[in-house]
Structures are given as C-alpha cells and as structure tokens.
Amino acid sequence: MPITETPVRLPIPPLPRGFRVAGVHAGLKRNPTREDVALIVSDLPATAAGVYTTNLVFAAPVAYDRRLTPGRNFRGIAINSGNANACTGARGFDDARGMAATAAGLINATADEVLVLSTGIIGEFLPLEKLGRGLERAAAELGSDDAAAVRAARGMMTTDTRPKLAGTTFAAAGTTYALFGMAKGAAMIGPRLATMLGVVLTDAAVEPADAQRLLREAAETSFNCVSVDGHMSTNDTVLLLANGAAGGSPLSGAGLEAFGRALTTACETLAREIADDGEGATHVLRIEVRGCADRDQARTIARAIADSPLVKTAVHGADPNWGRIVSAAGYSGVRFDPAQVRLRLNGTLLFEAGTPVRFDADAVSASIKSARETLIELDVGPGPGQIRFYSSDLTADYVHLNADYHT
Questions:
Q1: Cα separation, 164 vs 184, whole angstroms
Q2: How far is CA 338 from CA 59, 299, 314, 328, in A?
Q3: Which residue blocks in 43-118 are alpha helix, DSSP H?
Q4: Is the pLDDT of residue 400 over 70?
Q5: What is the distance between the terminal CA atoms of the chain, rounded to a whole angstrom?
Q6: CB 245 within 8 A of CB 206
C-alpha cells in the first residue's frame, strides 16, 4: 500500500548555531522522491548523549553508539533509512563503523567522533557503496535553512507521512539558547523506546553526565510514553548533541534546569507527533492516568489501555465503550480498588465508583468523530502517581500497510 505524504507542520524551528544538516536520495529506497540519507554536522566539538532500545535484539548502530555515549568531541551524526542494519552480526557492526568513518572523512573528523542511525528493513546488509555516495552528496549540500532541516528529517523517514520537527529557546545567565529536535516513527511503536529515531541539537554547552541524565529524564515522560502497536523495535535511539556555539560555560544550576525543561518540552512534542502519525491513524489517544502509587504504575495502566486493540478500534469507530477501557486497566497487573475508579472520555463522565453512569452516547460519539484527539482520563485512587501517555487508533489501513511492508 503506497504511503501518502502530508506537508511538514509549520512553523519550522530554526537550527541552533553551529549546526548544518542535509538530506538526499541515495537509492536505499525505491522511490526517488524520498530522501534516505541524512547528515548532521556540528562545526564545533559537541557533547553527546544517547538513550536506546531495551530490546535484547538490537541493531548494529545501537551497539556502535552505546559504546561512545555519553562523551565529548563529537562532530556529527550519519543517518540512513530503508535499511535497519539489524540482525546483521559482526559485519553489521563493521558496516556501522564504516558508515561513521565515511561521514567522518567528509567533515574532517574521526570515526569515533561521528554517531550513526539506521532504520528500515531488518536482516539486510547496508549497501555501503550507495550509502557512501549519498553521504558525499549530503556533505556537499549541508545547510542551516528550513529546507535543509526538512530534507534531513525526511532522510530519517520510513512509513512516516511527514517529517516531525520541534524547537524552542531558553535563557540562562543572560544568554538565549536554541534547541531543535527531529524524529521519525509511525509503527512498531512500543514503550522504551519505540521504532523511532530522534535527534536533539542545542547550541548550549552541557557536560556529558548532565546531558545523559536530562535526556534520560526527558525520554521517560515522552518517548517512553507513546505506543502505536506495542511492538518494541531493534533500532530505537535518541541522540543529543550540545556544541556550546552560543558561548558561555557548561550549564549548571538554574540554567541547566531551564535546558532540561526545554528538552522535555521538545521531546514531548515529538512523541505526540509520532502517535499522531501512527500508520493509518485517524485519531490520537491522549491517556491521562492518575491516583496510582507512583508513576511507573500509572504508566503500566496507561500502556495496557493504549495497546488494547479493542480500545483502539472503539475509538476508530467513535464508540464510547467504557468497558474496554476499564477492563484493560484491570488486567494491567496494577492493584487498585475498582470502587474508586472514575473514567471520563472527552470530558464526559462514563464510569464512577464501580458502576456506569448515565451519559449521552451519541454526544460522546460525535465528540470523538469531530476531533483528531480523543482524551481518556482514568482516576484509580488517591495516590500521587500520574502520567500522560499517547497512542493512536487501529484502522484497516494499519493492517494493509504492515501486510504489504517487506520484512
């Protein structure tokens, strides 16, 4: 089933100082209009941090990047789509390093100063000759304008219908810093992480330990709180580069806290965009779970609701089927008192104190049909644990896209 692309959502955030990017078509994808190689270059040595899939079966790029991050003196990230370089053994690792070395040679760096990301079909070796030619073209087309940013983001896409971009600024000690993020993901999306790639860039100076801690914390409330189909992939990676091009000492105190907030905001925006672009999706599910003993319990309940095919198809059909939601929470493995449960759908109370309440089913159904986002609010008790979790509905198009996708 062909992928129908949609335009990038405007406005396009500007790149932070000292970064240049490019995206080109190198022939890894059959469609010549779809970029499949991207290159990100920092003109200054940058701090790098990374968070990765927890799948025991992980791809060569994950193995390569994990051993290098967190760290200093990074100059770039080489990215390809159309080929995951996963389940490719020792050759796959050598190819990942070769990909880094090729990119490094084009930007006057060493292989260990370049990180790599791959996404696409599992179990096939990287076509290094094509990839090398693509990286050469990308290096010749590096830019910092909106068009370059969009092409680089497109170079990460597989079954995505549009690039996913986010950006913001934050201030510390009289200096204004920029933060830019881009991500891909539309299916095989399961918590911790998902089948997704993400890159965040900032012109602030950040120490490696601080960058790693704050990226991990941001991922906990963003990329680890999104699920399209509950299927955890082999290549999931989010990388952060902080090059200090805006000047000043490494952030600390209030400045570091401001950076952490900006980072979390950008990651949460990208996570929602992934759910919104779920394969075949017609609705985003925003699931708010409150009243648990802690955040992990809230996440477990939210994930059970998000991954339920019955909940997802009910939303697709605009059916306010409260029983599917409540029962999913009940089998999540988290203990709670059903007599304290309260459920709202798009603001309408459907279930309280262990029993359903009277509501206008037609009105609630109409509220689902009329909006892209469906809000599920579930309170299970008096505890402080809460979470916001994103998912998407389940449609016939999802089945067609994945039945036709070559594996």
A1: 6
A2: 42, 18, 22, 12
A3: 60-66, 89-106
A4: no
A5: 14
A6: no
Active site residue ranges: 195
Residue 1 pLDDT greater than 50, yes or no: no
The domains located in the chain, with CATH, are 19-276 (3.60.70.12), 284-404 (3.10.20.340)
The Cα–Cα gap between 19 and 16 comes to 6
* Tens-digit pLDDT profile for residues 243-261: 999 999 999 999 999 999 9
Give the pLDDT confidence of 163-215 residue by residue, as tens digits: 999 999 999 989 999 999 999 975 444 444 445 799 999 999 999 999 999 99
Tokens of 115: 């990180």
Residues 329 and 300: their CA atoms lie apart, in Å, by: 9
What is the C-alpha separation between 24 and 134, in angstroms, rounded? 7
Q: Quick one: tokens of 36?
A: 């499949």
Q: Phi, psi (5° rounding) for residue 93?
A: -65, -45
| Mean pLDDT, rounded, for 132-151 | 97
Alpha-carbon gap, residue 378 to 343, rounded angstroms: 5
In angstroms, the CA 328 to CA 252 distance is: 43
